[in-house]
Amino acid sequence: MTDARHTNQEHGHGHPAGPDVTEDQTVGITEALSRVAPRLREIRQARGMTLSEVANETNLSVSTLSRLESGGRRPSLDVLLPLARCYRVPLDDLVGAPSTGDPRIHPKPVKRGDRVYLALSRATDGMQAFKVLVAPQKPADREKPVTLRVHEGTEWCYVLAGRLRLQLDDEVTILQPGEAAEFDTTRPHSMTNDGETTLEILSLFSRQAERSHIHETD
User: Fold this and answer.
1) CA-based angle 80:89:210, to the nearest 5?
2) Which CATH class is domain 110-214?
3) Are the CB atoms for 62 and 56 separated by under 8 Å?
4) What does the UniProt keyword field contain (predicted)?
């Protein structure tokens, strides 16, 4: 009987078998989780987004997001995954994981209307580089009036392939491959595909311009 009782205590009856978590591992996990709150706030602010805008894109409540950023809620995978998709960053970026030393960017396509955006640089408070693919217009759409947009920020673009129709106020310029343009986006503007094939552009967006293009409602 004595041996049986001793055996039960060693194997921990009522608890799943498995390796014990060491004190160092527990401390490491706690430290990683403690970095999530300020990291979430940092990324959101770098994107120029409000809590309400993030809530709309992720289906998470504003109160949940606020508690995550203040450290009042423990982050879990079911909330970190939609946030990673919203901010277009790898999941380990949200927990401030150490850099692997790999300088490569792995862009994830973001579709907005007739165009697809691929981030070619990491988000910062300055300019961010994107490759933009714009589908050819349908014949019927070519007859419709162009909608001019106005928003804070600046944009720079370089045509890689196709024909870009750039309109600033009433001025229209056609850009061919190898040509570039830079303009203040507080000026009414539009950028459309003027050719029969996919338009490919290299663009640099300021934070405000990136927010308007990438986070706008479809």
Assistant:
1) 120
2) mainly beta
3) no
4) DNA-binding
Which distant-in-sequence residues (6+ apart) come within 8 Å of 61 by Cβ? 55
Whole-model pTM: value is 0.51
Percentage of residues in the chain having pLDDT higher than 90: 25
In the chain, where the domains are located: 2-94, 110-214
- Tokens 């001793």 locate to 6
**35-44, 90-99, 154-163, range with the lowest pLDDT:** 90-99
Q: Find out if CATH 1.10.3720.10 is the number for domain 2-94.
A: no
Side-chain-side CA neighbours of residue 39 (13 Å): 21
Cα distances from 170 to residues 146, 149, 187, 189, in angstroms, run: 11, 13, 11, 9
